[in-house]
Write a structure and sequence with these properties.
alpha+beta; disordered N terminus; 165 residues; 2 helices; 6-stranded mixed sheet
Length: 165
């Protein structure tokens, strides 16, 4: 009976181990793309509607990065209506580093990769678009803090990112 309990416990741990929203992603086989084309700058002004396509960086049909006015993290407007800490933006994984090192970088959620989002400004990042199997560079230029409305510019941010060659 003790062996059955131990076996059940082990199976439970193994089955739950894939539920993590912060799985480390390593570069897949030879079919992935690395975007090293010209950089573009995306700006979402503070206190603007994240649901408006003009306030989203539509990278592919699967990923559109934006940020809500409640002062939270960035999220993927294609698959989310708001950010979920340690998960968002869904469909992406992030690493601090340079695109030239993509083979050796460890990828995780945005929050796990950068720590506090307000400290992301100036860091060299690589974003992995999971459904598209694409890696691109991202460097945040600004991150507005505050409670929104009269409390300051909540939800604003800007970054520079690479495009497809």
């Amino acid at each position: 009976m003790k062996n059955i309990s131990l076996l059940f416990g082990l199976l439970f741990v193994i089955s739950c181990s894939n539920d993590s929203t912060d799985d480390i992603t390593t570069p897949p086989g030879p079919d992935y793309e690395v975007w090293t084309g010209a950089n573009i700058t995306f700006i979402k002004a503070p206190n603007t509607d994240a649901g408006d396509a003009a306030n989203q960086d539509r990278i592919t049909s699967n990923v559109a990065i934006t940020r809500g006015t409640s002062g939270g993290e960035i999220f993927n407007a294609v698959s989310e209506s708001d950010a979920t800490e340690n998960v968002s933006p869904r469909g992406t994984k992030w690493a601090v580093g340079n695109i030239s090192d993509v083979e050796s970088l460890s990828f995780s959620s945005f929050r796990s990769a950068v720590g506090k989002p307000k400290n992301v400004v100036g860091k060299n990042l690589v974003m992995y678009l999971e459904a598209d199997n694409v890696y691109l560079t991202v460097k945040f230029l600004s991150w507005a803090s505050g409670g929104g409305g009269s409390n300051g510019g909540s939800g604003g941010f800007s970054y520079e990112r690479s495009t497809k060659d």
